[in-house]
Amino acid sequence: MGRKEDNIAKATEVMHHRANIRNLAIAAHIDHGKTTLSDNLIAGAGMMSAELAGHARVLDFDEQESARGITINAASASMVHEYESTDYLINLIDTPGHVDFGGDVTRAMRAVDGCFILTCAVEGTMPQTETVVRQALKERVKPVLFINKVDRLINELQITPEDMMARFEQQIIRVNNLIKAFAPDEYKKSWQVDVTAGTVAFGSAVHNWGITVPYMQKSGINFTMIFDYCHSDNQVELAERAPVHEVLLDMAVSELPSPEVAQPYRIPNIWQGDLDSEVGKAMIECDANGPLALMITKIWMDPHAGEVAVGRIFSGSVEQGETLWASGAGKSERVQQVSMMVGSDRIPVQSVVAGNIAAITGIRSAAAGVTITREQDSTPFEEIRHYSEPVVTVAIEPKAMRDLPKFIDALRSLAKADASLEVSTNSETGEALLAGMGELHLEITVYRIEHEQGIKVDVSEPIVVYRETVTGNNHGRAFEGKSPNRHNRFYCEVERLPDEVIEALRDGVFGTGNVRPKEAKEIGRRFAEYGMDKDLMRKTFTINGTNLLVNDTKGIQYLHETKELLIEAFNEVCVRGPLAEEPCMGVMVRLVDAKLHEDAIHRGPAQTIPAMRNSVKGAMVRAGPVVLEPIQKLYVSVPNEWLGGVTRELTQRRGEIEDMPADGETTTVIGKVPVAETFGFSNSIRAASQGRAIWNTENCGFEELPRSLLEGVVGEIRQRKGLKPDVPGETYYTD
């Protein structure tokens, strides 16, 4: 038996002791050292050679990860760590740092209870740092902080101890401000990271050393000695005295919660079922003998086993050979194999119990975000929502029509594995639209289709996904939409929702889908917290993304019978707005009046849906429709001699420079730029700086497209979609 198998054998014993389990993620901005640290933690557990740590990249086993030197997929490893003479099971997930793969970070946070937030001692907190902290806190995952690459401060920048401490303090304050802003109210204080409390560590993952105040007391190491070790190029001895795996895993055990501690406050946040039910109580208690409740957070393709579903078990256990249901599936399926993970290696076990992360094969209905149970009608977990939306699209089709069935199957598998990827297909023509988080996200998706699935494809140039909204409202000027038979009429008013409400909708504060009558009072209360009219919002029919349909009518006969048709029409408009048939964002539609034929045969789908659709679109036209374009935050670090070329490149792309802090011979250009202007940016910025610039981006929402560009952009979109060139006016929707 190998070292990994030995470790998993020990893990299968420890996993039955809920207090001795720690499920944690490592999250950070790109290139801040997550995967190197993961290697060292795995090596410290005796599961790989210490000499290979930092080079083997055990959790970056995907071919594209190796080729590009970045983490693309969240990957897990289970290991046993001894702390104060007791064995603890550490289920570790390494997450991507690149903005295009942030969806994997969001999904990983559902599976864990604690998180190592990494920052770079030199670069400090960066855009993705803030994002991962938000993602963790949204899932009620407790963070601790590891400030990495401390040796670079000492040896490369040669700063004084006083300057180093000032930098540390600045980073800690920044992270604590994020915790104060995004943590649940009851944890805003208790989850603050604190050096003296042992929730902040310092070190160098690449040189395999780390330190915390508790470990200083244990080892006798202090910061003066760290300075001496680094200056004398003797970090090997420092790593022997303060090995990073021992320091951080000790911190994980002592400062991060076990499943039995975390699930009582996490379950009400991620599951909306009856907490007093059998399964509700079992999840709160993390009961291995309760009903099975497992949430899939990752699907990956094993070349031999096919689809592997990885997820967190919140109650019960999953066993090899048993029959299970995936939420939304039409039939039960048999578990072929249960495993624990160490990177790409799946170590088979007979079963995995509540509080742990497991990998299963055989459940082909499983997808990222799906709930697995033994009962078909069990209440699923809340949808996992990533804070960003897809902003770039490509059209893709197989070169050979004989590959069409295989191509469609490949797209379905990719969509199951990556919930951040939106796929729409025409099964007759084979044309598909892939919407992703950025160019790199789509580039890698296309690579997988061609190289892993063996399907050659034609791919269009990237297409930006815009949003449509309104600038004003048509209060008091409701737009009348008539049915084709003229027997039914609907009157709608629209308005743009406040930014904070849009953000809350995006975060899932109000849920999604149709609002049931029993939920109306609570929905009204939640909206009232954001300054909305409580009584009005209690009448919400449905929530579609960041858009709302509210019934503001009184005493309309037969309206209830047409409710589902009205919602269907509204949902159609949410997907295809009036200007360029782009998705709508931040629009509240109020149905203020209606006239319905008494005979149901005259108010069927063919009559009701067009009338309501025209009423909503006409109201948006009357309220002043505009297009919103996706924006990215941009950070470019460049030697001062090349600064001018970088700033020119940015401003030529409609970029807006917000700040340019200097640090010695290097300046960081901080700004924002429309996504539509970022295509080809990599090559241009390399040319402008002769390859000396380093840059990162982060999605930062949508802004109104300049009026001077509106007509041209809308025209291009309409032409691409095969629509008539002229945008329909109000009169188009009156008939």
Could you explain the architecture of this structure?
The protein is built from 23 helices and 34 strands. It is globular. The chain has an 8-stranded antiparallel β-sheet. The chain has a 7-stranded mixed β-sheet with strand order 2-3-1-4-5-6-7, sandwiched between helices. It has 735 residues and is of the alpha+beta class.
The first-level CATH class of the largest domain is given as: Alpha Beta
CATH architecture type of the largest domain: 3-Layer(aba) Sandwich
| Structural class by secondary-structure content | alpha+beta
Global outline: globular
Largest sheet: 8 strands, antiparallel
Strand content: 25-35%
> What is the terminal-to-terminal distance?
76 Å
How many domains would you count in the coordinates?
5
DSSP helix fraction: 25-40%
Give the CATH topology of the largest domain. Rossmann fold
**What is the overall pLDDT average?**
86
Low-pLDDT residue spans: 52-61
What is the helix tally?
23
What would you report as the Rg, rounded to the nearest angstrom?
Answer: 27 Å
CATH superfamily caption of the largest domain: P-loop containing nucleotide triphosphate hydrolases
Strand order of the largest sheet: 12-11-17-8-9-16-13-14
Total strands: the figure is 34
Fold topology:
Blueprint (H helix, E strand, L loop, with lengths): L2 H12 L6 E8 L5 H11 L18 H6 L6 E9 L2 E9 L7 H10 L2 E7 L6 H12 L3 E7 L1 H6 L5 H22 L17 E5 L4 E3 L1 H7 L3 H9 L3 H7 L2 H12 L3 H12 L7 H8 L7 E10 L3 E10 L1 E3 L3 E4 L6 E2 L2 E6 L2 E5 L1 E3 L3 E5 L9 E3 L18 E7 L5 H14 L4 E4 L6 E5 L2 H14 L4 E3 L3 E2 L2 E4 L8 E4 L6 E8 L2 H8 L6 E2 L5 H9 L5 H4 L2 E5 L2 E5 L7 H17 L11 E9 L9 H18 L2 E15 L3 H10 L3 E4 L2 E2 L2 E9 L6 H9 L4 E11 L2 H14 L15
Parallel strand pairs: 1-3, 1-4, 4-5, 5-6, 28-29
Antiparallel strand pairs: 2-3, 6-7, 8-9, 8-17, 9-16, 10-15, 11-12, 11-17, 13-14, 13-16, 18-20, 18-21, 18-22, 19-20, 23-30, 24-25, 25-29, 26-27, 27-28, 30-33, 30-34, 31-33, 32-33
Helix pairs in contact: 2-11, 4-5, 5-7, 12-13, 19-20, 21-22
